Amino acid sequence: MIVLITIDVTDGSELPDGLPVVARIGDQYETEPVLTENGTAFLKIVPNFPDALGRSVTVFVDTVPLDQELVYAPGTNFNFPVSIPNLPVPTATPTAIPVLPAVYSGTVTIAGAPVLPGMVLVARIGSYESFPASLDGPNFTGLVIITTDKALVGQPVEFYLNGVGATHSPGPFEPGKNQRLDLVFVGVPTPEPTVISEALTATPQPPTATPIPPTPTPIIITATPTKAPTATSVPPTNTPIVVLASPTAVSGEATEEPEEAGGGCGSTHVSMETAAINMLLMMGPLAMIGGVKYRKRRKQ
Length: 300
What we know:
This protein is mainly beta. Helices cover 11% and strands 29% of the residues. The strands form four sheets. Strands 2, 3, 4, 6, 7 and 8 form a six-stranded antiparallel beta sheet that branches. Strands 11, 12, 15, 16 and 17 form a five-stranded antiparallel beta sheet that branches. Strands 13-14-10-18 form a four-stranded mixed beta sheet, with no helix packed on it.
């Protein structure tokens, strides 16, 4: 069944475009929604069960049913005027109401210990945790609870210093409230002072260069062999053999000469002739040696 319905609003209002229109047959069938355009809607009703013939068809414009009911029958009707008592009332969209922040400031007291730099103070509501406050000695400021979760409104606010809770809670979370508090903590662990090793802070010194003595270079002296002087062979000199002839006495008897007085050593009186002969015999070999040397020089 295909039908083009023309919708008229009973109270005289103009039907806007874009409203969803559906047709239903009991609880067994519903068409795909179509949108209104120029006060009309084109419906295609094709039931998916066998006994739909003659059944009542209810048409809804948005959530408002038409004044008339249709009866399902195969075929086409291109102009079927209908009316609705009034336009659908639009569903009101809830406006989100923001949750205003709450701001806290005040003092921190630790039983038996001072407030040290580096400690962290936060506020918690259930699983929510704020950003850390600004701590200046025992005074804190800027502890703000900012959330969009309305379920946190009215829940108790707890404060923690280094993970240790305060001895009391100032009360529930009230958006927009600016409150000054005096918080007391017991058993807050004191952070151990950081020991800076001198070895880490000492200025590194460059290593001192150790002088290395120069390695002596061995001097190798190569001995050059020197030729030994060649010995020059000198031919042996012929030494003349001098034979001294003893004078023979003419007479048969030797004349004994008287010994001279004095301490002479075996001195014998020799005649002049004998002395001359002896002198010639002594000088002869020397003269021969001189002659031989003279001949050698002449040959050279």
